[in-house]
Specification:
The structure is a single chain. The chain is about 35% helix and about 20% strand. The protein is of the alpha+beta class. It has one domain (about 10-130): Aspartate Aminotransferase, domain 1. It has a six-stranded antiparallel beta sheet with strand order 1-2-3-4-6-5. Strand 3 and strand 4 (about 80-85) form a beta hairpin. Helix 2 packs across helix 5 (about 115-130). About 30% of the residues are buried.
Length: about 130
């Protein structure tokens, strides 16, 4: 079935009967254990690297703002996604991202193979530098 806005649901929507998450804790609470663990690790790394970033929900996913959108993450039916929200940062890190399935501003990964903390830190720091006033 082709996904359209009307029938598109993330993995995290299923436990809330399709309603958007109220906050990041709510978003994570409905995920399967392995996915939740991978995204909680990603969340901790983002928060430690960008402690002044504001955490919230944007476009139905957890997102962080600091002088504009910084990064975000999401769970889908068959993968997790780390949204870098910057094509420039993605293009600047070709060697580090070569082994991942990437989009213009995102990295897809499986819950059983979470992103390395060092890579997440490097990407978040690059976004902080890009968003610096």
């Amino acid at each position: 079935m082709k996904r359209t806005p009307a029938n598109r649901r993330s993995a995290s929507d299923s436990g809330r009967a399709g309603r958007p998450a109220a906050d990041v804790d709510d978003y994570l609470s409905c995920l399967p254990t392995g996915v939740r663990a991978a995204l909680e690790k990603l969340r901790r790394t983002i928060k430690a690297t960008a402690p002044k970033a504001e955490e919230g929900i944007s476009y139905r996913i957890p997102a962080y703002r600091w002088n504009g959108m910084l990064v975000g993450f999401a769970a889908a039916a068959d993968h997790c996604t780390f949204h870098i929200m910057s094509t420039a940062v993605m293009r600047a890190k070709p060697k580090e991202l070569a082994t991942y399935d990437t989009g213009k501003g995102s990295i897809r990964f499986s819950a059983d193979r979470p992103l390395p903390v060092a890579l997440v830190r490097k990407l978040v720091k690059a976004r902080l530098a890009e968003n610096a006033p």
